[in-house]
Design a protein that fits this description.
The chain is mainly β. The chain has 2 helices and 10 strands, in the order H-H-E-E-E-E-E-E-E-E-E-E. The protein is globular. The relative contact order is 0.18.
């Protein structure tokens, strides 16, 4: 007997985003303020931990941000310092997507890697934030925020790589 291998559509249906994300990841982000040409970086760690009783995840990012010149500040004033943020990811009813909310529960956007759900957007008056997710392998994914509007013109590109589990 020669069993049929699942095709890409069947693999996407079975993909479990929550299981994929669970754990610790390094993050390297490039920051570009297109209005001024200012560049920066963020490096750190993202931890996806299970929330109790709802099948969700807590997203916690900690690291260091560096800007060659502080956006909106005096020209030529570099900045390096700690940065962190938190989100809550909630199940959507489909295992290959999760709804990302701000830490206070307000909706942010939908996260997924499939062809029909890898992009979303968020309106943050007066600017539009467009995100695109790409799973590049079993232990790496990337996402890009394209922020446009009268207040911001930025491109933020993040690459996350799974950290090895500590030895027992």
């Amino acid at each position: 007997m020669n069993p049929q291998l699942p095709g890409p559509a069947q693999e996407e249906e079975r993909f479990d985003l929550r299981a994929y994300l669970l754990g610790s990841w390094t993050v390297a982000r490039t920051l570009l303020d297109r209005s001024t040409g200012t560049r920066g970086t963020f490096t750190g760690v993202v931890r996806f931990t299970a929330t109790e009783h709802d099948g969700g995840l807590r997203f916690r990012e900690d690291g260091t941000v560096s800007w060659a010149s502080v956006p909106g500040g005096p020209a030529g004033t570099p900045f390096t310092g700690p940065a962190s943020r938190e989100y809550l990811l909630r199940p959507t009813g489909a295992p290959d997507t999760m709804d990302m909310n701000f830490a206070d529960g307000r909706p942010f956007h939908r996260m997924g890697f499939g062809p029909q759900n890898s992009s979303d957007q968020h309106w943050c008056d007066p600017d539009t934030y467009r995100v695109s997710y790409t799973r590049t392998g079993p232990d790496e994914f990337r996402y890009e925020w394209d922020v446009t509007g009268p207040a911001k013109d930025q491109l933020l590109t993040s690459v996350l790589r799974r950290m090895p589990e500590p030895a027992a």
